[in-house]
Specification:
61% of the residues lie in helices and 7% in strands. It has 589 residues and is mostly helical.
Length: 589
């Protein structure tokens, strides 16, 4: 096939592409190459033979693709044909004009893909073999070009090429994150039809996204296809579907769905079963939950203590103790016994609501049922009593705990120490703290902070500073709470020197020092006429990137003046004004 370009009554022959049907039009000429092996462009070109001129023709093609350019260049003049929306088969020609084929392949091999909108992406992919397209696909996916990767997979699917499966997975996950679930579903099916097996994470991401958009039917269809693809659904898949059904009011649908899955051979996942029963209990009530529990037992899905504990926990959190009793009765009817978790769940709820008589009943049942209280049980009791102001009874339980050879842990001690400090019993708190040296529990940061806070509020800063030194010796690093508590206590009793010690320790450890701490120390030092030390603290403040303000500088100027150096104070004031640190109106008082 040839393209005849006539200019100034001369004819130039250049190769053209096969298979195109163009409709080229200009103001003076019209040409149609349909069903013709040779078509001619007759036009009159006025040009300067010493320069190059271009004649651009635009054609409309049936399919929708991007544009590419074919430039025919003569030594003296040239014609450019711009074909818009070329066919996928546009690159089926055996040779391209003037090295276009070579140039395009070099571009694809070097860059794999060009963002230019002036040539057809699909057209550049269709002639490639499977290996080349997969290399391009991997490059596009690794660079996050999901739209172009999607177009490439479409081309490969039409040409029966198998896409790179890992790239497909990355593309599907990327589309899911962009909320393009329809495309993600389509490409997942292409991957499966090509022999790929998506992993369970990808499936669960897609199922979750579909459920989030309310496309439950598609999600269920996808779940049904999972086993056929070689990746059966797991607990997360089923839980997601069930939660979506309940969120949309499909309570009976969810129950029927799970029964159907069990009949199809789905493993009776205990977690999924527990989630289902808990959802029924939440939306339909405890009685209905017990009915479903019995129905599921017929299907071979039997509850265990975890299922019952989950229901007890749900009902107790909402104060529905009659429902909790019904659940425990059902538990006993199945020949099971409540365990420590069951009792602790009940005790935690009862303590929270202040039902102390019921607490005593549960403790009695635990002892008679050979389920003695554990350290967790005692911690629940002590914490509940301390929060409700029953410190004496909390201490009684602590003594009972020790006498029953149930060793307290650090949580037990921290709970008691916090209650003692809140009641102002700091000496007793110090005794408990020091008793830890004879136990397997070592006081930690929370322990020290709790007691230091109690001492600071009582004004016992000497003892607080002693604990501060002790924790450093024990290599327990003080935190911001420790320092804030100490500074607050020292401010109240005007102990500037002790605050300076803490500042130096914090600076040594490169810990952040608050502006309020610097201000207190500098004011206190200037007040005590220790201006030289105050200036050192100021230098520390600047070096720690904490900007001093007018109040700090005014305090130092006043301290210099009060130390009998009025002239030096005046010069310092004027110097700071020159440096625009202070203004004329700022006068130290």
């Amino acid at each position: 096939m040839e393209l005849m370009v006539v200019a100034h009554q001369s004819i130039k022959e250049v190769p053209c592409l096969h298979g195109f049907q163009m409709d080229l039009a200009s103001a003076s000429d019209y040409c149609s190459p349909v069903k013709s092996r040779v078509f001619r462009l007759n036009c009159s070109i006025d040009c300067n033979f010493k320069t190059h001129s271009y004649l651009q023709w635009k054609g409309d093609i049936v399919s929708r693709r991007n544009a590419f350019f074919l430039r025919c260049v003569d030594q003296q003049r040239s014609a450019c044909i711009d074909i818009v929306n070329g066919e996928d088969q546009a690159w089926s020609s055996g040779r391209y004009a003037f090295g276009v084929e070579k140039k395009l392949r070099e571009q694809m091999n070097s860059r794999k893909y060009s963002d230019s909108s002036n040539f057809s992406l699909d057209g550049s992919f269709v002639e490639n073999d499977e290996e080349t397209n997969n290399e391009i696909l991997q490059n596009l996916c690794s660079n996050g070009k999901l739209v172009n990767a999607s177009r490439l997979i479409d081309v490969m699917a039409r040409r029966n090429q198998i896409p790179h499966f890992l790239s497909c997975v990355n593309l599907i996950r990327g589309l899911i994150k962009l909320d393009r679930t329809e495309k993600a579903t389509r490409f997942l099916k292409i991957m499966v039809m090509s022999g790929g097996i998506p992993d369970i994470i990808t499936y669960n991401m897609l199922v979750g996204a579909l459920c989030k958009k309310g496309q439950l039917k598609i999600a269920i269809e996808l779940l049904d296809d999972m086993s056929l693809s070689g990746c059966p659904p797991d607990v997360i898949t089923y839980n997601t579907i069930l939660r979506c059904m309940f969120d949309h009011g499909g309570f009976d649908q969810a129950i029927g769905f799970w029964k159907d899955q069990l009949k199809k051979g789905c493993p009776p996942y205990l977690i999924t079963y527990t989630v289902l029963i808990e959802l029924v209990c939440k939306h339909c009530g405890t009685v209905r939950a017990m009915e479903v529990l019995e129905d599921m037992a017929i299907e071979g899905c039997n509850p265990d203590i975890v299922t019952y504990n989950s229901l007890v926990n749900y009902t107790c959190k909402r104060g529905r103790y009659e429902d909790s009793a019904l659940i425990i009765y059902n538990l006993l009817s199945h020949g099971m016994e409540p365990n420590t978790v069951t009792y602790n769940t009940l005790l935690h709820s009862l303590c929270t609501h202040g039902y102390w008589d019921k607490v005593d009943e549960i403790l009695l049942i635990m002892n008679t049922a050979s389920q003695p209280p554990t350290v967790v049980t005692y911690n629940i009791l002590i914490n509940g009593l301390c929060k409700n102001g029953h410190l004496d009874r909390a201490i009684s339980f602590f003594d009972q705990m020790v006498s029953n050879n149930c060793l307290p842990d650090i949580i037990t001690y921290n709970t008691l120490l916090g209650a003692l400090c809140r009641e102002g019993m700091v000496d007793e708190a110090l005794c408990v703290l020091h008793s830890l040296n004879d136990t397997r529990c070592s006081p930690g940061l929370i322990t020290y902070n709790t007691v230091i806070d109690g001492l600071a509020k009582k004004g016992c800063m000497e003892k607080a500073m002693g604990l501060y030194g002790e924790m450093i010796e024990r290599r327990v690093t003080p935190d911001e709470i420790t320092h804030r508590t100490l500074f607050w206590g020292l401010f109240r009793v005007d102990l500037v020197e002790d605050a300076l010690v803490i500042l130096k320790e914090m600076n040594k450890r490169n810990q952040k020092i608050r502006y309020s701490a610097f201000r207190f120390v500098i004011h206190g030092l200037c007040k005590n006429k220790k201006v030289d030390i105050a200036i050192q603290v100021l230098e520390m403040m600047v070096s720690s990137q904490c900007k001093p303000d007018e109040e700090i500088y005014s305090a130092i100027i006043k301290g210099v003046g009060d130390a009998g150096m009025a002239e030096e104070a005046h010069r310092l004031h004027q110097k700071l004004i020159e440096l625009k640190v202070l203004t004329e109106e700022t006068m130290p008082h």
